[in-house]
Amino acid sequence: MTSGPAVPERPATEQTAPVEPPVPTEVLGAPEIARALTRIAHEILERNKGGSDVVLLGIPTRGVPLAERLALRLAEVEPGLDAAGLVGTLDVTMHRDDLHRQPPRAIGTTTLPAAGIDGKVVVLVDDVLYSGRTIRAALDAISDIGRPRAVQLAALVDRGHRELPIRPDYVGKNLPTSVHERVHVRVAEIDGDDAVLIGQGPTSAVTTTDPAAEEVTP
Question: 3-state DSSP: the chain helix, strand, coil percent, rounded to 5?
Answer without folding.
Answer: 30, 20, 50
